[in-house]
Amino acid sequence: MTDPLTVHVPLDQGRDYDILIGRGLIAGAGARVAALGGKAAVIVSDETVASLYGDALRASLEDAGLRSGLVAVAPGEASKSYATYAAVCDGLLAHKVERGDLVVALGGGVVGDLAGFAAATLRRGVRFVQVPTSLLAQVDSSVGGKTGINSPLGKNLIGAFHQPRLVLADTATLDTLSEREMRAGYAEVAKYGLIADAGFFDWCEAHWRGIFSGGPERDEAVAICCRAKAGVVVRDEREDGERALLNLGHTFGHALERLTGYESARLVHGEGVAIGLALAFRFSARLGLCPGQDAGRVANHLALAGLPTTLQAVPGGCGDADALLDAMAQDKKVKDGALTFILARGIGQSFIAPGIETNAVRAFLQDELGAA
Amino acid sequence: MTDPLTVHVPLDQGRDYDILIGRGLIAGAGARVAALGGKAAVIVSDETVASLYGDALRASLEDAGLRSGLVAVAPGEASKSYATYAAVCDGLLAHKVERGDLVVALGGGVVGDLAGFAAATLRRGVRFVQVPTSLLAQVDSSVGGKTGINSPLGKNLIGAFHQPRLVLADTATLDTLSEREMRAGYAEVAKYGLIADAGFFDWCEAHWRGIFSGGPERDEAVAICCRAKAGVVVRDEREDGERALLNLGHTFGHALERLTGYESARLVHGEGVAIGLALAFRFSARLGLCPGQDAGRVANHLALAGLPTTLQAVPGGCGDADALLDAMAQDKKVKDGALTFILARGIGQSFIAPGIETNAVRAFLQDELGAA
Ligand SMILES: NC(=O)c1ccc[n+]([C@@H]2O[C@H](COP(=O)([O-])OP(=O)(O)OC[C@H]3O[C@@H](n4cnc5c(N)ncnc54)[C@H](O)[C@@H]3O)[C@@H](O)[C@H]2O)c1
Ligand SMILES: NC(=O)c1ccc[n+]([C@@H]2O[C@H](COP(=O)([O-])OP(=O)(O)OC[C@H]3O[C@@H](n4cnc5c(N)ncnc54)[C@H](O)[C@@H]3O)[C@@H](O)[C@H]2O)c1
Ligand SMILES: [Zn+2]
Ligand SMILES: [Zn+2]
Fold it and tell me: Which residues line ligand 2 (CB under 6 A)?
């Protein structure tokens, strides 16, 4: 393999870390993990990813002199539960993970969030390494230190801020990712362009096929996304402000996930985000904030990449405008009845818009639903 | 009530807080909690303590304009479980605790550890207030930010460092505490004298009855203990060094708790600590580190207060020397086979002693067991 791309995340208090991006990183992961110190490095993964990459990662860790082990959970969002969290913690303890040892999250965002939360709370905190294997995890969830699980009362309501000590994004692992998961992750890639980097969105329009096919554009795109996210996280780690911009498209997206019962057969997160991005731009245009032309460009590009961009595209439907509003009101971005949206003045020009009137949203959604 | 005693805990990064100590603090708790900001303050308690003080605390919070609520768990160590943790988190969410709101732990160390961990992880961290109602919680567990639950694989293995924003130690609540729990907490009080404050141990010998009966000595003792613990915590929050001194008597004590199956009918934590303190001093004397006279004084005083001080005093027995060694080896204070003890050069002169030989410990324990 060629040298990996590197993004440094300069957090304070000795918590800075590197994100390495390249094809084939898993084969050499052991030496990089061993360099962090510790005697054991125990892997948490899901059964699908473990069967593909678990042995290679374990072998690499053990070759580097680390005692290793594997805790595998069922694939899918349902594993971000209290019960699986307890099983992962007990599994790590059974593998005798001590305070100086490492937890290695090998998998998509589900495994990263779950293993990260277990690491945050095992013995009141052990260090962890992210080895993200889905596009979404490589460009988003593995960076920034948000970890957690779901409660029956809502997604990601339980968790901790716990930064990884290292992120190894082996982009060759995406070769085995399903087309659908690849597209879903791509919605988050495009999101970074839409938030604050119009030039990157242009580049995506020209080069997106290389990301899917595994050309050098893939590594480049992952690095650009990680750099963008790392910058936001360093400036606003706890989401008191700017970090909320990363939720562009997510207020609508989360509502759609909720209304489809988090059934991935109907809608996965990135598909909800794709629809949400298109809606955020059309809503911005309707409010006179953003050129209608930009809203059109966003929807066209996402559709070209095979992503849904309308409420009608939700399999089984998503209810009426009030059901959508209700589902949005349960989101954390709601304060005292008024909705906070991330809106845009154009591609690459997003901003936090608090106090958006419920009536304006309802009218917009009604038109979107009627436009079938 | 008279003005409460105050101990300030000067932690960095805006995490400093006050410990207030006095009779009747619950009645005025609402105003002090409301001063921290937030709209809701939801209480976590156990059923015993909730029935005694829950209504008064709720009324005080609501009088101060806070929306309140109560999540009650079964009393006892068994509530420091994954399942009860999940139930507490979901209970707090059902009471609509938002990021700016407060969790109030009303109870002994079990409730404080459990509610603190729920607060540390609810929405990735909400603020919490400790209202400790057992002597142990007032002098030890409510101060210092260690929160957590037990795993089937061991005590306190899951948790987080999460400092309270305020501690309200209403010493009048101890009037309803059982004699046995009072004595158990008193072992931790005496511990502070033994660790580093010979003058306080002298004072305890003279004034311990006032602590039990609820005289002004009680508030004074709680304040002295909190000041001592706060000092250690500020200097070594994450237990990289000095904080380990607080474990004086606990290596033996934890082993005894383990060997009695954590059955409080047989042994509660403070009783294990009392035996452990006596053993730590006798072991120090045997190693020629500490005058035998000091070891005798320690055991005599604890016995006078009604606490056990020998292995023979463990109801149902505690196994032989090897069983004890095994149980100690499972403790976190074991590194690479060698045992780390907290030993003493005399009353008020404890120190961390790493690398104590297993054989020396075994011989000591055999003599202790044979000395029936
Ligand atoms: N922590 C954060 O900041 C953050 C940010 C965004 C999303 N998330 C979370 O991420 C989760 C979604 O992540 P995801 O989309 O990666 O889901 P996921 O982890 O469930 O992975 C999707 C599917 O792809 C499979 N898979 C993963 N890598 C593979 C590979 N290389 N080859 C073949 N199959 C592979 C998995 O087994 C799974 O079935 C959600 O729970 C979401 O809340 C977290
Ligand atoms: N976090 C820390 O730093 C730390 C330090 C030491 C101990 N601990 C933990 O503390 C726990 C032990 O605490 P504990 O001894 O307070 O046990 P506890 O919380 O179980 O309380 C003991 C009993 O006393 C009852 N009780 C409490 N206050 C009462 C009152 N005012 N009137 C009547 N009954 C009352 C409770 O209902 C319970 O049955 C253990 O789990 C231990 O691990 C934590
Ligand atoms: Zn997302
Ligand atoms: Zn103790």
Answer: B 46, 48-49, 52, 75-77, 80, 107-111, 113, 133-134, 136-137, 140-141, 144, 146, 156, 173-174, 176-177, 181, 269
| Topology of the domain covering A180-370 | Dehydroquinate synthase-like, alpha domain (1.20.1090)
Question: To 5 degrees, how large is the angle CA B184–CA B187–CA B191?
Answer: 155
Residue B300, CA distances (Å) to B136, B280, B305 in order: 21, 14, 9
Pick among A12, A97, A158 to test the B interface (most B CBs inside 10 A)? A158
Whole-number pLDDT of residue B332: 56
Mean pLDDT of A39-53: 98
Tens-digit pLDDT profile for residues A166-218: 999 999 999 999 999 999 999 999 999 999 999 999 999 999 999 999 999 99
pLDDT for res A255: 93
User: CATH number of the domain at B5-176, please?
Assistant: 3.40.50.1970
Instruction: Kindly provide the ipTM of the predicted complex, given to two decimals.
Output: 0.94
Closest C-alpha among A297, A257, A284, A268 to residue A341: A284
- Cut 0.90: pTM above it: yes
Dihedrals phi, psi of A129, to nearest 5 degrees: -120, 135
Q: Choose from B99, B158, B340 for mutation: most chain A CBs within 10 A.
A: B158
- Listed by start position, the domains of chain B span 5-176, 180-370
Residue type, B60: S
| Structure confidence at residue B331 (pLDDT) | 65
pLDDT at B201: 98
Strand partners, B41: B68, B102
Q: How far is the CA of B344 from the centre of ligand 4 (A)?
A: 17
